[in-house]
Protein backbone atom coordinates (compact mmCIF):
# COMPACT_ATOMS: atom_id res chain seq x y z
CA UNK A 1 0.00 0.00 0.00
CA UNK A 2 1.13 3.50 -0.75
CA UNK A 3 0.50 6.64 1.29
CA UNK A 4 -2.60 7.67 -0.63
CA UNK A 5 -3.98 4.12 -0.47
CA UNK A 6 -3.66 4.19 3.30
CA UNK A 7 -5.32 7.60 3.60
CA UNK A 8 -8.21 6.45 1.42
CA UNK A 9 -8.56 3.29 3.51
CA UNK A 10 -8.67 5.36 6.70
CA UNK A 11 -11.15 7.85 5.29
CA UNK A 12 -13.59 5.08 4.40
CA UNK A 13 -13.52 3.75 7.97
CA UNK A 14 -13.65 7.01 9.89
CA UNK A 15 -16.77 8.02 11.85
CA UNK A 16 -17.86 11.17 13.63
CA UNK A 17 -18.85 9.05 16.61
CA UNK A 18 -15.24 7.89 17.02
CA UNK A 19 -13.99 11.49 16.73
CA UNK A 20 -16.42 12.54 19.48
CA UNK A 21 -15.31 9.64 21.65
CA UNK A 22 -11.67 10.62 21.23
CA UNK A 23 -12.42 14.19 22.27
CA UNK A 24 -13.98 12.94 25.51
CA UNK A 25 -10.59 11.44 26.38
CA UNK A 26 -8.69 14.60 25.55
CA UNK A 27 -7.54 13.47 22.10
CA UNK A 28 -7.84 16.45 19.77
CA UNK A 29 -6.05 16.75 16.42
CA UNK A 30 -6.16 19.15 13.50
CA UNK A 31 -6.75 16.37 10.96
CA UNK A 32 -8.65 13.31 12.12
CA UNK A 33 -10.77 10.65 10.40
CA UNK A 34 -12.22 8.92 13.44
CA UNK A 35 -10.74 5.41 13.13
CA UNK A 36 -10.37 3.23 16.21
CA UNK A 37 -7.00 2.01 17.44
CA UNK A 38 -8.15 -1.59 17.04
CA UNK A 39 -8.82 -0.98 13.36
CA UNK A 40 -5.41 0.67 12.99
CA UNK A 41 -3.73 -2.36 14.53
CA UNK A 42 -5.44 -4.60 11.99
CA UNK A 43 -4.07 -2.49 9.16
CA UNK A 44 -0.61 -2.37 10.74
CA UNK A 45 -0.56 -6.17 10.85
CA UNK A 46 -1.54 -6.30 7.21
CA UNK A 47 1.10 -3.77 6.13
CA UNK A 48 3.96 -5.08 8.30
CA UNK A 49 7.15 -3.13 8.95
CA UNK A 50 7.69 -0.45 6.31
CA UNK A 51 9.87 2.41 7.46
CA UNK A 52 9.63 4.45 4.27
CA UNK A 53 5.83 4.32 4.44
CA UNK A 54 6.00 5.14 8.15
CA UNK A 55 7.90 8.36 7.47
CA UNK A 56 5.57 9.33 4.65
CA UNK A 57 2.44 8.71 6.72
CA UNK A 58 3.71 10.87 9.57
CA UNK A 59 4.28 13.76 7.17
CA UNK A 60 0.62 13.74 6.09
CA UNK A 61 -0.38 15.19 9.46
CA UNK A 62 -3.43 12.96 9.80
CA UNK A 63 -3.86 11.66 13.35
CA UNK A 64 -4.59 8.04 12.41
CA UNK A 65 -1.83 8.01 9.80
CA UNK A 66 0.61 9.09 12.49
CA UNK A 67 -0.46 6.35 14.87
CA UNK A 68 -0.10 3.83 12.06
CA UNK A 69 3.32 5.30 11.23
CA UNK A 70 4.50 4.45 14.75
CA UNK A 71 3.10 0.93 14.48
CA UNK A 72 4.84 0.04 11.19
CA UNK A 73 8.14 1.90 11.67
CA UNK A 74 11.44 0.05 12.06
CA UNK A 75 13.07 1.05 15.38
CA UNK A 76 16.53 0.12 14.09
CA UNK A 77 16.20 2.80 11.40
CA UNK A 78 14.93 5.55 13.67
CA UNK A 79 17.27 8.55 13.87
CA UNK A 80 17.69 11.37 16.36
CA UNK A 81 16.36 13.77 13.75
CA UNK A 82 13.24 11.68 13.28
CA UNK A 83 12.59 11.45 17.00
CA UNK A 84 13.01 15.19 17.52
CA UNK A 85 10.92 16.02 14.48
CA UNK A 86 8.06 13.74 15.44
CA UNK A 87 8.14 14.89 19.05
CA UNK A 88 7.89 18.53 17.96
CA UNK A 89 4.70 17.60 16.10
CA UNK A 90 2.95 15.74 18.93
CA UNK A 91 -0.60 17.12 19.22
CA UNK A 92 -2.00 15.05 22.06
CA UNK A 93 -1.16 12.33 24.56
CA UNK A 94 -2.23 9.55 22.18
CA UNK A 95 0.16 10.26 19.32
CA UNK A 96 2.90 10.93 21.89
CA UNK A 97 2.34 7.67 23.76
CA UNK A 98 1.92 5.55 20.63
CA UNK A 99 5.14 6.84 19.08
CA UNK A 100 7.04 6.17 22.30
CA UNK A 101 5.46 2.81 23.14
CA UNK A 102 5.32 1.29 19.66
CA UNK A 103 8.53 2.61 18.13
CA UNK A 104 10.84 5.03 19.92
CA UNK A 105 11.52 3.01 23.07
CA UNK A 106 13.18 0.31 20.95
CA UNK A 107 15.36 2.74 19.00
CA UNK A 108 19.11 3.20 19.68
CA UNK A 109 18.43 6.71 21.03
CA UNK A 110 15.59 6.03 23.47
CA UNK A 111 17.65 6.45 26.65
CA UNK A 112 19.24 9.62 25.34
CA UNK A 113 15.94 11.26 24.40
CA UNK A 114 14.23 10.20 27.62
CA UNK A 115 16.71 12.41 29.45
CA UNK A 116 16.96 15.25 26.93
CA UNK A 117 13.26 15.81 26.43
CA UNK A 118 12.67 16.44 30.14
CA UNK A 119 14.09 19.94 29.54
CA UNK A 120 11.59 20.78 26.79
CA UNK A 121 9.03 23.54 27.45
CA UNK A 122 6.54 21.76 25.16
CA UNK A 123 3.93 19.77 27.06
CA UNK A 124 3.87 16.68 24.87
CA UNK A 125 7.60 16.58 24.20
CA UNK A 126 8.18 16.65 27.95
CA UNK A 127 5.50 14.02 28.45
CA UNK A 128 7.29 11.95 25.81
CA UNK A 129 10.42 11.91 27.96
CA UNK A 130 8.60 10.30 30.87
CA UNK A 131 6.56 7.97 28.68
CA UNK A 132 9.86 6.74 27.21
CA UNK A 133 11.13 6.06 30.74
CA UNK A 134 8.02 4.03 31.53
CA UNK A 135 8.27 2.10 28.25
CA UNK A 136 11.97 1.37 28.74
CA UNK A 137 11.18 0.03 32.20
CA UNK A 138 8.60 -2.27 30.63
CA UNK A 139 10.36 -3.35 27.45
CA UNK A 140 14.13 -3.21 28.00
CA UNK A 141 14.43 -6.39 30.04
CA UNK A 142 18.24 -6.46 29.89
CA UNK A 143 18.86 -2.95 31.19
CA UNK A 144 20.64 -2.83 34.58
CA UNK A 145 19.20 -0.91 37.51
CA UNK A 146 21.96 1.70 37.32
CA UNK A 147 20.52 2.98 34.04
CA UNK A 148 17.19 3.79 35.69
CA UNK A 149 18.51 5.55 38.79
CA UNK A 150 19.28 8.85 36.98
CA UNK A 151 15.69 8.84 35.76
CA UNK A 152 14.48 9.05 39.36
CA UNK A 153 16.17 12.41 39.77
CA UNK A 154 14.56 13.65 36.56
CA UNK A 155 11.20 12.31 37.72
CA UNK A 156 11.46 14.18 41.01
CA UNK A 157 12.21 17.36 39.09
CA UNK A 158 9.51 16.76 36.49
CA UNK A 159 6.88 16.23 39.18
CA UNK A 160 6.96 19.98 39.79
CA UNK A 161 5.29 20.55 36.40
CA UNK A 162 1.61 21.30 36.94
CA UNK A 163 0.47 20.50 33.41
CA UNK A 164 -1.91 17.56 33.45
CA UNK A 165 -0.37 15.39 30.76
CA UNK A 166 3.15 15.98 32.01
CA UNK A 167 2.44 15.02 35.60
CA UNK A 168 0.55 11.91 34.44
CA UNK A 169 3.57 10.92 32.37
CA UNK A 170 5.84 11.52 35.36
CA UNK A 171 3.68 9.25 37.51
CA UNK A 172 3.70 6.56 34.82
CA UNK A 173 7.50 6.67 34.68
CA UNK A 174 7.86 6.43 38.46
CA UNK A 175 5.39 3.56 38.68
CA UNK A 176 6.97 1.74 35.74
CA UNK A 177 10.45 1.88 37.25
CA UNK A 178 9.16 0.92 40.67
CA UNK A 179 7.44 -2.18 39.32
CA UNK A 180 10.59 -3.48 37.67
CA UNK A 181 12.18 -5.21 40.69
CA UNK A 182 12.53 -4.96 44.46
CA UNK A 183 15.59 -2.72 44.46
CA UNK A 184 14.04 -0.20 42.09
CA UNK A 185 10.76 -0.43 43.95
CA UNK A 186 12.52 0.63 47.14
CA UNK A 187 14.17 3.56 45.36
CA UNK A 188 10.96 4.62 43.61
CA UNK A 189 8.90 4.42 46.79
CA UNK A 190 11.40 6.69 48.54
CA UNK A 191 10.96 9.27 45.78
CA UNK A 192 7.18 8.90 45.86
CA UNK A 193 7.09 9.43 49.61
CA UNK A 194 9.08 12.66 49.33
CA UNK A 195 6.80 13.90 46.58
CA UNK A 196 3.66 12.95 48.51
CA UNK A 197 4.78 15.18 51.38
CA UNK A 198 5.25 18.22 49.14
CA UNK A 199 3.36 21.42 49.84
CA UNK A 200 2.80 21.88 46.10
CA UNK A 201 -0.17 20.17 44.47
CA UNK A 202 1.50 18.63 41.39
CA UNK A 203 4.33 16.73 43.10
CA UNK A 204 2.00 15.71 45.91
CA UNK A 205 -0.42 14.21 43.37
CA UNK A 206 2.39 12.35 41.58
CA UNK A 207 3.72 10.96 44.85
CA UNK A 208 0.37 9.74 46.11
CA UNK A 209 -0.61 8.30 42.73
CA UNK A 210 2.64 6.33 42.52
CA UNK A 211 2.50 5.16 46.12
CA UNK A 212 -0.98 3.67 45.70
CA UNK A 213 0.36 1.31 43.06
CA UNK A 214 3.92 0.70 44.22
CA UNK A 215 2.90 -0.25 47.76
CA UNK A 216 -0.19 -2.19 46.75
CA UNK A 217 -0.51 -5.87 47.75
CA UNK A 218 -0.58 -6.87 44.08
CA UNK A 219 2.76 -5.22 43.26
CA UNK A 220 4.34 -6.39 46.52
CA UNK A 221 3.27 -9.95 45.79
CA UNK A 222 4.62 -9.84 42.24
CA UNK A 223 7.99 -8.49 43.38
CA UNK A 224 8.24 -11.00 46.21
CA UNK A 225 8.09 -13.85 43.70
CA UNK A 226 11.10 -12.53 41.80
CA UNK A 227 14.46 -14.17 42.52
CA UNK A 228 16.83 -12.03 44.56
CA UNK A 229 19.64 -10.38 42.66
What does this structure look like?
The chain starts with a helix and ends in a 5-residue tail after the last helix. The longest helix is centred in the middle third of the chain and has 17 residues. It has a domain of 120 residues: Serine Threonine Protein Phosphatase 5, Tetratricopeptide repeat (Alpha Horseshoe), CATH 1.25.40. The relative contact order is 0.08. With 229 residues, it is mainly alpha-helical. The model has no long low-confidence stretch (mean pLDDT 96). Helix 7 runs parallel beside helix 9 and helix 11 runs parallel beside helix 13. The protein contains 14 helices and no strands.
Quick take:
The protein has 229 residues and is mostly helical. It has 14 helices and no strands. Helix 7 packs parallel to helix 9, helix 10 packs parallel to helix 12 and helix 12 runs antiparallel to helix 13.
Helix-strand category = mainly alpha
Average pLDDT score: 96
Q: How many strand elements?
A: 0
- List the secondary-structure elements in sequence, H or E: HHHHHHHHHHHHHH
N-C termini distance: 48 Å
CATH architectural category of the domain at 110-229: Alpha Horseshoe
Give the C-level CATH assignment of the domain at 110-229: Mainly Alpha
Number of helices: 14
The fraction of residues assigned to DSSP E strands is under 5%
Biggest sheet overview: none
CATH third-level topology of the domain at 110-229: Serine Threonine Protein Phosphatase 5, Tetratricopeptide repeat
Mass-distribution shape:
globular
Poorly predicted residue ranges: none
Amino acid sequence: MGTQDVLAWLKRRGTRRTVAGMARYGIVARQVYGVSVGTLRQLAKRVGKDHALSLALWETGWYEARLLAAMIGDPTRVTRRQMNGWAAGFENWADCDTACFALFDRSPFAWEKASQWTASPREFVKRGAYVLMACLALHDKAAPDRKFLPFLRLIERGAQDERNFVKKGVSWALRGIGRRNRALNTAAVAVAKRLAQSAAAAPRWVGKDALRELTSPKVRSTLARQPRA
